[in-house]
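Supplementary Text 2. Reproducibility record for the structural model of the 172-residue chain.

All settings were left at their defaults, and a single model was retained for analysis rather than an ensemble. We include the record here because the model underlies the residue-level annotations in Supplementary Table 4.
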Amino acid sequence: MNKLTATIAITALLVGCTTRQPLCENAHVGHEHGNHDTSWFELGLSAGHVHLDGENENAPGLHFHVNKRLGQEGIMERLALGVGGEAIFADHEHYAMMLPLSVYPWRGLVLSVAPSLVWAKHEGDWESEKAAHLEAAYVFELGECDLGPIVGYSGSSEEEHYMVGLHFGIHF
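Retained model, structure tokens:
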């Protein structure tokens, strides 16, 4: 079941990437400065390989978010707040809800930090705890979409995991 879910999710990401031209031809809500889009919202999806350190396990993972830029001028155009979630399809299931703060300091670089609540299934019981997620991506603008590599880290008192993957975002 976990591998099937991951396969469906990765296929959806790839379909989104290959159909990006029709999705990305809409008129801009925001405007561009240099090489980054300052549209008001971004719907993002990242798929990748996750290593769960405490369990020494590797698994596919998905991350999604909806971020809103805080403004279109000055420092506010370089900041975004949002909501997001994460699923790791390991033998011990992991899910998270988060509130990311993203910074766009230079060109396509995106740095995010998110306080999170994580649910994990261990020995048949669901446990929850607070965690922190950190991510860095470098995205390439493709009209109203972006695509690029992403790395992430999540840590709590119980576990750590690392992700390397591909990010796809739609700006609206």
